[in-house]
Amino acid sequence: MFQRIHFISGLPRSGSTLLSALLCQNPRFQAGMSGPLAGLFGALLGEMSARNEFSVFIDDAQRKRVLRGVFEQFYADTPAEVVFDTNRGWCTRLPALSHLFPQARVIACVRDVPWIVDSIERLIRSNAFQPSSIFNYAPGGTVFTRANGIAGGEGMLGYAYDALKEAYFGEHADRLLLVQYETLTSDPAKALRAVYDFIGEPAFQHDVEHIEYDASAFDAKAGTPGLHTVRPRVQVNERATILPPDLFARFANDAFWREPKLNLRGVRIV
Predict the structure, then answer these.
(1) pLDDT digits (tens, 9 = 90+) for 29-53
(2) What is the 3-state secondary structure (H, E, C) of 193-242?
(3) What is the reported pTM?
(4) Which DSSP category does 267 fall into?
(5) Over the chain (270 residues), what is each successive 10-residue block's mean pLDDT?
């Protein structure tokens, strides 16, 4: 592959789109919102597995070439020297990615979990007349059922949280950098320095006062306008939560990455 490729993953509503928008200011880089490659990757793995009667004609070397070829062809037209592909599922694919792209690193965006739940709930309430794809366009429910839905193992938050833990505590954790939303919004220069150092790229002067990114068409189709909105400048947005106190407290201690004694693999965190 002629580009160097890295991956952006982590928790939802935790700054991955903002990080991508900032990285795109570097003319050598390409980054964006979550894309289809992780889904294609999983589908191909399934089709090349033993459930397919013709899998006897496919060995691991061929599987690797097919999977690598998907990346090469998907990004064949991009002039960027460095590509960042975004998907929350990449944290579950570190063993495979380590073989396909030995130089690749995964940047996982994280955030205090109650504020993720709060952010998703705000999106739902701000689009009161548009049922969201987050909940399969179902118009009913309460703040509690919505929180339970996203926090479940297959939910928007629960799946990403479990995937992050898999990567954080796994044998390939040296490929992982955690970028905290709180750092990215309060000290973006520090967060970006950590990213550049982690992937071994020369520093670039980013403009955190003038950011451009537009995914409004995608968000409208998903019934969730604002899902990938990026403000024109990086800033901390202090606010009171709209969650009931008991619901907020339920997620208050879920930031495992803030416990040094749990960082058994020495994962870098900024």
Answers:
(1) 999 998 999 999 999 999 999 898 8
(2) HHHHHHHCCCCCCCCCCCCCCCCHHHHHHCCCCCCCCCCCCCCCCCCCCC
(3) 0.93
(4) -
(5) 85 95 96 93 93 88 94 93 96 96 97 97 93 90 96 96 98 97 97 97 94 85 85 90 97 97 97
CB 234 within 8 A of CB 143: no
Domains: count for the chain: 1
Tokens found for residue 214: 């537009």
Lookup: tokens for 228: 């990938």
Residues across the chain:
270
* 180: phi then psi, degrees, rounded to nearest 5: -80, 135
Q: Which two tokens stand for residue 155?
A: 């939910």
Cα 135 to Cα 153: distance, rounded to the nearest angstrom: 14
Q: How many CB atoms are closer than 10 A to CB 72?
A: 14
Give the pLDDT confidence of 168-201 residue by residue, as tens digits: 999 999 999 999 999 999 999 999 999 999 999 9
Residue 81, domain extent: 4-269
- Residue 100 has which token pair? 């396909």
CATH code, domain with 132? 3.40.50.300
